[in-house]
Every structure is written in structure tokens, then in C-alpha cells.
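Course assignment 3, question 2. Fill in each field.
Student: A.L.
Task: Predict the tertiary structure for the chain below.
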Amino acid sequence: IRISSMLNPHPPNLMYPIMILALWGILMTSSICLRQTDLKALIAYSSVSHMGLVTAAIIVQTPWGLTGAMTLMIAHGLTSSALFALANTNYERTHTRTLLLVRGLQLAFPLMSTWWLLTNLTNMAMPPTINLLGELFIISTLFNWSTPTIIITGVGTLITATYSLYMFLMTQRGSISTQFRLLPPTHTREHLNLILHLLPLGLLIMKPALISGLFT
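Answer field:
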């Protein structure tokens, strides 16, 4: 955001290549998430996909675009960090990040499964999360800049919802492997860590001006 303001107004030969890469990156990295077998790699590619939206919004250089970019960066920062924390709790107990081997953990950790569900719903920008506000600002900005972008952002949003559900179902549902019958229980510090991630996301929607009113 700070660098792009020095390039305003953008010459078209500088803006269009970056915009094309950002929009194409949304589709490519989202599609890569659908075929990931490594849990942490899936979460990492998910962050890259969301940052494609942020980059595209910043390049447009409108108040709505900058507001949406700032909102989504803060929201996804908390969401992605919570997903990595959840992935680490799984790894500490199963010692593997392969999705096919860590199925059915809902039976062993029902409360942790609740955190997985809430975090994945936040990652796919379900209402009333602050992630939805940021994505709506960005999608509206890109649609106003160029109408065909609604196709790319719409497909990207659909794929995001798909791999978020895929991640939840692959880790929590199904039958648990016999080698994971005796798993150590979760700790209070882990639940507190996730509360400190998700509570700000819930409270920010009560007053989104704290993060979204910077550029309006």
C-alpha cells in the first residue's frame, strides 16, 4: 500500500501485468489447494490465494480497494495463524501432516473439531465474519474497475469454499486410524490460543471501522 501510492497514477503498462498475475494467481493457487496432501502446504497456498485478492485491490488504487485490502489482510492474518496453530496441534499428536492419515480426529478431539469448523468457515468468508467484509469490498472494487473480473473472483471464492470444506472433512470426519487410538489430550493453552485468534475476528465485525475506516 505504501509503495503503490508513489506510483499513482499507474501507467497501464505497469498496472495490467501485475493485475493479470494477481487475478490468475487467485485461480491457480486455489486450484493447487484442491490437490494438496500436506496440511501445512494447503494452508500456505490458501494464504497466497487471498493475497492475490489483496494485491489486485491495491493496484486499483481506490478508497474501497484499499479498505478491502487492509481489512482482508488483518482478517486473514488471524485466520491463517489459527489454521497453522490447529495444524500444529494435529502434528504434535499424530506426527504427520498427510491428510489421508489424520482422518476422523473429531472422535478424539471434539472441542478441537469445533475450532476447526469455525476457523474454516472464517477462511471461506462466511457471514458475519470480517473476512466477508474485506472480500466484498475487493470484489466490488474489481467489478467496478472491469466487469469480467467478477468471473475470476467468483470462481476463486467458490474454490476457496471447496478446499476449506475439503480440509475440514479430511481432518475431522471419517474413521480414525488404528494407530491413533491412544492420543494425548489437548491442553488449555491450545484452546486459549485459538480463542485469542477467533475472538478478535468476532469482535471486529461489531466495529469494522477500527480496521476498515482508514481509507474511507
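Instructor remarks: The mean pLDDT is 87. The chain is about 70% helix and 0% strand.
Grade: pending
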